[in-house]
Amino acid sequence: MYGFAVPGDIACVISRDSGNYGCSGPIPAAPDGANMVTGAQQGSPGFAKADRPLYVFQTLPNRLLPGTRLSFRNVTCGTDGTVTQCTNSFDGGGFVISPAGSFVLGPSNPLLLNTGEGSNPYVN
After folding, report:
1. Are 82 and 96 in contact (CB under 8 A)?
2. What is the DSSP code string of 26-59?
3. pLDDT tens for residues 92-109?
4. What is the pLDDT of residues 44-54, one digit of tens each?
5. What per-residue confidence (pLDDT) applies to 112?
6. Which pLDDT score is estimated for 6?
7. How far is residue 40's CA from residue 94's CA, in Å, rounded to a whole number?
8. pLDDT at 108
9. What distance in Å separates the CA atoms of residue 80 and residue 66, rounded to the nearest whole number?
10. Radius of gyration over every alpha carbon of the chain, rounded to an integer in angstroms
11. CA distance 49 to 24
C-alpha cells in the first residue's frame, strides 16, 4: 500500500494489490459531511461517512509535496498544495478534495461514451 498525506492532514492510499484508492479524514466541503472517499481502477468513486478512519496509520504518512503526484496502475493522485485530485486513466473517473468544495469526477473517456450511432466514432 502506498500511503501519503495531502493538505488538511488527510490520509490517502493507493493499494498495490487491488489498485483501489481513497482518502479519509476531515475532507473539506464534502457532500453530506463525508469523511472518506474511495475509488477503483475504473468507474466513479464515492464519498461516505464512517465512525473510524478508513486507513489506520501510527502517524500521518509522509505528505505529498505541492506540485507532485503519485501513480500506480491506472490511478494518479496529485496536489498543488491546496487542491488534491485522484483520477483513474481508464475512464477518467476520480475525485477532487478542495477547500472550495470536494466532489466526484464522473467517467469521461470519449472512447467509452455512447454517441447514439451504435458504433465507436474513433474506429477506422
Report:
1. no
2. --TT-GGG--EEEE-SSS--EEE--SS-SS--SS
3. 899 999 999 999 998 875
4. 999 999 998 77
5. 52
6. 95
7. 9
8. 77
9. 4
10. 15
11. 9
Chain-centroid distance of CA 71 in Å reads 11
Q: Grid coordinates in use for 64?
A: 505529498
119/102 Cα distance (integer angstroms): 35
Residue 116: exposed, middle, or buried by beta-carbon count in 10 A (0-12, 13-18, 19+)? exposed
Q: How far apart are CA 83 and CA 113, in angstroms?
A: 28
Helix (H, G, I), strand (E, B) or coil at 109: coil
Give every residue of the chain whose pLDDT is below 70, as ranges: 109-124
In this structure, what C-alpha cell is assigned to residue 42? 475504473
Distance CA 3, CA 22 (A): 10
> pLDDT value at position 54?
77
